Amino acid sequence: MSLMINDECIACDACLEECPNDAIEEGDPIYQIDPDYCTECVGYYDEPSCVSVCPKDAIVPDPDNSESLEELKFKFEQLSKGE
Question: What does pLDDT average to over the chain?
Answer without folding.
Answer: 94
